[in-house]
Amino acid sequence: MNRHPRATSNREAKRDSGIFIDVYDEPGHLIRRAQQIAVSMFHSTMRNGVTPIQYCVLRVLQDHPGIDQVTLARLCALDTSTAADLAVRLEERGLVRRMMPMKSKRYRLLQLTPEGAALVKRLIPSAYVLSGRLLQALNKKEQRIFLRMLKKFVHLNNQESRAPLDRRFSHVRLNNAHVKVKPA
């Protein structure tokens, strides 16, 4: 026997009228939980001591060797200080090389070291496994719909981010042969 039938019916009435939303059904809560789940699955699948954002940085540097830290920040949707800190940490681990152009001491150019490139090469197959794990609870049609809606949500709300993604620079590739650099 339900001890609180009136509370339940009031709750349902409020929910039906749009006044009451259970915290567990709120979009912000669900997005936060989805992020927690995705990060947990990332670490259990990738198992190479990199974080999801470090993986993104390494992949972007694989595709755009020789970009500067500001461009890296734009391509990874990071603020510039976070991108600089990540570059330093990845350099300390021997995965990234930071170079200073001779003509300017204001910025650093970045590229993967051979160790960094080898790590990315090892991580990519695990990233495919991770994608499958993240979507496995959905059927193929639901997966397509979910990804389409997620991309739409992120794209349409990009400017709400503290560090919006800016892919206008994704075509940038510096020819290191024409840029004189010295190690940072």
Give the topology:
Blueprint: H1 5-17, H2 27-46, H3 52-63, E1 67-68, H4 69-76, H5 80-92, E2 96-101, E3 109-112, H6 114-135, H7 140-156, E4 181-183
Antiparallel strand pairs: 1-3, 2-3, 2-4
Helix pairs in contact: 2-6, 3-6, 4-5
Structure notes:
- The protein has 184 residues and is an alpha+beta fold.
- It has a single domain (23-169), classed as Arc Repressor Mutant, subunit A (Orthogonal Bundle).
- The protein has helices at residues 5-17, 27-46, 52-63, 69-76, 80-92, 114-135, 140-156, and strands spanning 67-68, 96-101, 109-112, 181-183.
- Strands 1-3-2-4 form a 4-stranded antiparallel beta sheet.
- Strand 2 and strand 3 form a beta hairpin.
- Helix 2 packs across helix 6 and helix 3 (52-63) packs across helix 6.
- The longest helix is centred in the last third of the chain and has 22 residues, at 114-135.
- Residues 1-9 and 172-184 have low confidence and may be disordered.
